């Protein structure tokens, strides 16, 4: 007989690891099986070299507080910060419970900065600072137009900078660099040690709803291609760009109208100790005109396996694959009658994006280092090498007013009965994995959720609260997690 389990997790990234950990803490008796098509977990978007490792808290990312015609609105920035605080609290609880290793193995204190040039952007950054400095979750944000101050914060930004050029920077010392690959590995290590089954080199091929309400999950071992199947009461599809294909295969009506647009990326990387020693920050700026928000240029400190390096980018690339290890037919095989029109409308309405992608594809190594020199005027070609980052499958979907829209965020798609759910989209993704999964638990497990709330509150002390409305509570919470995670500044 076909084995029946409580939960099947598809994909071995930070999302499945987070959901699996939450469910195991809440229902330790449930039987959970996770599938990963590659030989180990965290090899796609969760891999530390496939993302920038920014603990997205809207401290430096301007796209969470865009400049419009009216007054600057901090609501989105505050929301992102609130979500990241939940992730910090969850990780802190897992450190205290011995689930995670020493915090320095996956998170390190790294100031978050924003650096802009030109009178218009300087005026905008100052206005943004004036709004955010009043918000409790942004306490400690600093602003300067003084080259001596900015040089102290990040020397590489100021060396050989042209005189008379308007520039400004903000800095939040309490920022972080996160190795989501290490975090994912540690979460799965704990899960497997606690009885959760992880099947690597196993690819899920189809999902079919059964009359008894369970899902028949057909899969095969990629070594030998042996087919098999399993039944599950609940299925989570956390397979990056592959999630769309599996959700389409499931036949749930909620996926109709969705498509994804794959955008790859590259970063320039240096391990030159003389260069690395001069920069201890993640420095973001404004995206180019017509460029998607995920392309915002930034010069980052990275700490992976205890070794510091610098990364600059991203530079967009294009591949029809939805994953780095996907199929060249992915972009075509997603097409259905219900999503063709929205996807065509996205193509027609975003000519700037197409122009941007073509321009990026034409850049050689020298041109990419030239782009770096807008941040770091002293950059030398020989110090920097190009590395390929992960594929990002940006959501395209129907919109009642616009017909079809391109969405730069994350979105959970679940069936009406809550028996299956999947995650589409990209940034801020990993940084907000905990609140995303909490929202999924609430919508997919309505009967169990009320009984879970006490344990969720134990894991996340401010669960159900808004930190930014209470300055004292915000300070108390951030100080507590900083102490546990070893990221005091």
TrEMBL record:
<dbReference type="InterPro" id="IPR036188">
    <property type="entry name" value="FAD/NAD-bd_sf"/>
</dbReference>
<comment type="pathway">
    <text>Carbohydrate metabolism; tricarboxylic acid cycle; oxaloacetate from (S)-malate (quinone route): step 1/1.</text>
</comment>
<keyword id="KW-0816">Tricarboxylic acid cycle</keyword>
<comment type="similarity">
    <text>Belongs to the MQO family.</text>
</comment>
<keyword id="KW-0560">Oxidoreductase</keyword>
<dbReference type="GO" id="GO:0008924">
    <property type="term" value="F:L-malate dehydrogenase (quinone) activity"/>
</dbReference>
<keyword id="KW-0274">FAD</keyword>
<protein>
    <recommendedName>
        <fullName>Probable malate:quinone oxidoreductase</fullName>
        <ecNumber>1.1.5.4</ecNumber>
    </recommendedName>
</protein>
<dbReference type="Pfam" id="PF06039">
    <property type="entry name" value="Mqo"/>
</dbReference>
<keyword id="KW-0285">Flavoprotein</keyword>
<dbReference type="InterPro" id="IPR006231">
    <property type="entry name" value="MQO"/>
</dbReference>
């Amino acid at each position: 007989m076909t084995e029946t389990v409580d939960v099947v997790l598809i994909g071995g990234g930070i999302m499945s690891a987070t959901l699996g950990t939450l469910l195991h803490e809440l229902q330790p008796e449930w039987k959970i099986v996770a599938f990963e098509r590659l030989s180990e977990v965290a090899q796609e978007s969760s891999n530390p070299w496939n993302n920038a490792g920014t603990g997205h808290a809207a401290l430096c990312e301007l796209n969470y507080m865009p400049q419009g015609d009216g007054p600057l609105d901090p609501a989105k920035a505050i929301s992102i910060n609130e979500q990241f605080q939940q992730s910090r609290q969850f990780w802190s609880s897992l450190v205290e419970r011995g689930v995670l290793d020493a915090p320095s193995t996956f998170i390190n204190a790294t100031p978050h900065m924003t650096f802009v040039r030109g009178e218009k952007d300087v005026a905008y950054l100052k206005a943004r600072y004036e709004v955010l400095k009043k918000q409790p979750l942004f306490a400690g944000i600093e602003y300067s137009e003084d080259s001596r101050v900015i040089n102290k914060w990040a020397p590489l930004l100021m060396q050989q900078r042209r005189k008379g050029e308007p520039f400004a920077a903000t800095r939040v010392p309490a920022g972080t660099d996160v190795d989501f690959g290490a975090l994912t590995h540690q979460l799965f290590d704990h899960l497997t040690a606690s009885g959760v089954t992880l099947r690597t080199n196993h690819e899920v091929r189809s999902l079919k709803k059964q009359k008894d309400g369970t899902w028949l999950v057909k899969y095969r071992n990629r070594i030998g291609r042996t087919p098999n199947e399993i039944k599950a009461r609940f299925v989570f599809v956390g397979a990056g760009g592959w999630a769309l294909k599996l959700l389409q295969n499931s036949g749930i009506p909620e996926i109709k109208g969705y498509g994804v647009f794959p955008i790859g990326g590259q970063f320039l990387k240096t391990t030159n100790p003389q260069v690395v020693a001069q920069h201890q920050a993640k420095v973001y700026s404004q995206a180019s005109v017509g460029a998607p928000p995920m392309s915002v240029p930034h010069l980052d400190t990275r700490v992976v396996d205890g070794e510091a390096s610098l990364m600059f980018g991203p530079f967009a690339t294009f591949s029809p694959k939805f994953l780095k290890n996907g199929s060249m037919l992915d972009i075509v095989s997603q097409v259905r009658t219900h999503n063709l029109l929205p996807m065509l409308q996205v193509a027609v309405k975003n000519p700037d994006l197409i122009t941007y992608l073509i321009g990026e594809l034409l850049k050689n190594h020298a041109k990419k280092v030239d782009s770096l020199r807008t941040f770091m005027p002293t950059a030398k070609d020989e110090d920097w090498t190009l590395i390929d980052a992960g594929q990002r499958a940006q959501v395209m979907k129907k919109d009642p007013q616009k017909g079809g829209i391109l969405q730069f965020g994350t979105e959970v798609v679940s069936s009406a009965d809550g028996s299956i759910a999947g995650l589409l989209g990209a940034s801020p993704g990993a940084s907000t994995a905990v609140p995303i999964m909490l929202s999924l638990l609430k919508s997919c497990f309505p009967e169990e959720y009320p009984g879970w709330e006490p344990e969720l509150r134990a894991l996340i002390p401010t669960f159900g609260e808004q930190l930014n409305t209470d300055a004292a509570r915000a300070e108390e919470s951030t100080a507590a997690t900083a102490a546990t995670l070893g990221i005091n500044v």
